[in-house]
Structures are given as structure tokens and as C-alpha cells.
Design brief:
The chain is built from ten helices and eight strands. It is an alpha/beta fold. The longest helix is centred in the middle third of the chain and has 19 residues, at about 65-80.
């Protein structure tokens, strides 16, 4: 095992599992109900990453909770029909787990939906530590979720790397003092993540194996 990195923290949506189309359709379904014809696909892509309350609060603070509830209802109803896993993810996570690396999920999703995604993609067997939105008082990019995951794993920031597809993930890792890795398959584009200057930029999740110098059994 690499002497410097023995802990890997993963964002979920857009990083391990492909929820992009589910999230986009959930936003469009919700916003079209309140503002018919006002929003198109390109308009909602910037909403991906922040919490629902941050996003809907910026649109209509008075109805943010109502809008978030409508979003979640549609999202849950259509979850298993749309969500898939990204190439290279399952094998990489399995290898990391088998080789004794400490791994966790750090996400801005609520824990019940996190469980759905992990079970659907059969990743649930690998993650003992999950830090979701309902576990913290401050979401990413605040360091609280990352530091909570590290505490649960018995790890320090110096031996960890935060992996994600959005600015919130990279900034949360930087704010917590971990190394950071961006995934080039982010819907926001490789150039966007590169501009945040993560320590690593992954073209496939398998790239992590060489970064941490895992010895495949």
C-alpha cells in the first residue's frame, strides 16, 4: 500500500454512478411545474453539485422546500429506471477494498437515496462509511463532511484523497487538507475541473490504482 494515501473518499453522483440524466430530468420536471417553459437542459446543469435547498432557495426562497420535495418525489420514482454505474468504477472499488484501503462516500445527497444508488449498482457491499447531507450541518465545499468521514475511518487528511466531479468536491478536499482528484467524465467538462487545479485528473476510475500504487491480488 502506498505510504502516503491509504484513504479514498468518493462523491457519488456523477463520480461513481451516472445520475446525470436523472438529476437533469428531476430539475426540469420540477421547474416546468412552477415556471412552465422557462428552463431548458442547459439552464439546469449549473444546479448540479449544490444542495437542493441552495439551488431552489436561489430561485424562490419561499417555496424552496416545496420545490425540493417535488424534485425528490420524481427522483425517487424514476431512480432505478435511469441510474447506471460508470465504466471502471465497480472493479476499481472492489480492488481497493480487497487491498485494505479505507473508502467512504461523501455526498450532498440524503442517505436514503444514497442507499438506493449503492444497492442498484451493487457498490453497497464495499462502503461501511457514508457521510450524507442529513449527517452534517454544513455541506461541501465546507470541510465538515470530509473531516467527518476521515474521523469515522480513523484517517488523517494527509493520507487521504477526495474524488469528485464537481467544484464542491475539489474545494471540500482542499479545505479539509486532503489531496484531490477530479473525474474527466464530469458533465461540466474536463476543462472546468482542470481549472480548479485538483492534484489528479482521472480519465477512468482505474487511474486511481496507479496513483495509490495498489498491488492487485
Amino acid at each position: 500500500m502506498n505510504g502516503k494515501i491509504n484513504t479514498l473518499l468518493f462523491d457519488l453522483d456523477g463520480t461513481l454512478i451516472d445520475t446525470n440524466e436523472l438529476i437533469i430530468s428531476s430539475f426540469l420536471h420540477t421547474l416546468d411545474f412552477y415556471y412552465p417553459g422557462k428552463y431548458i437542459r442547459e439552464d439546469v446543469i449549473p444546479f448540479m453539485g449544490p444542495t437542493l435547498m441552495e439551488t431552489f432557495g436561489s430561485i424562490d426562497a419561499k417555496r424552496a422546500e416545496e420545490m425540493a420535495a417535488k424534485y425528490r418525489a420524481y427522483n425517487l420514482e424514476n431512480h432505478d429506471r435511469i441510474v447506471t454505474i460508470f465504466d471502471g468504477v465497480y472493479d476499481t472499488i472492489k480492488i481497493l477494498k480487497e487491498n485494505g484501503y479505507k473508502i467512504a462516500i461523501v455526498t450532498t445527497k440524503l442517505s436514503d437515496v444514497v442507499d438506493m444508488g449503492l444497492k442498484l449498482t451493487k457498490l453497497d457491499e464495499f462502503f461501511d462509511v457514508i457521510v450524507a447531507l442529513d449527517h452534517v450541518t454544513k455541506a461541501k465545499p465546507d470541510p465538515e463532511p470530509v473531516l467527518m468521514a476521515l474521523e469515522k475511518l480513523g484517517s488523517s487528511p494527509e493520507e487521504a484523497i477526495m474524488v469528485g466531479d464537481n467544484s464542491h468536491d475539489i474545494l471540500a478536499g482542499k479545505n479539509a487538507g486532503t489531496k484531490t482528484a477530479g473525474v474527466a467524465w464530469t458533465l461540466k467538462g474536463r476543462e472546468f475541473l482542470a481549472s480548479l487545479e485538483p492534484d489528479y485528473l482521472l480519465d477512468n476510475m482505474r487511474d486511481l490504482l496507479s496513483i495509490v500504487e495498489v498491488e492487485v491480488k
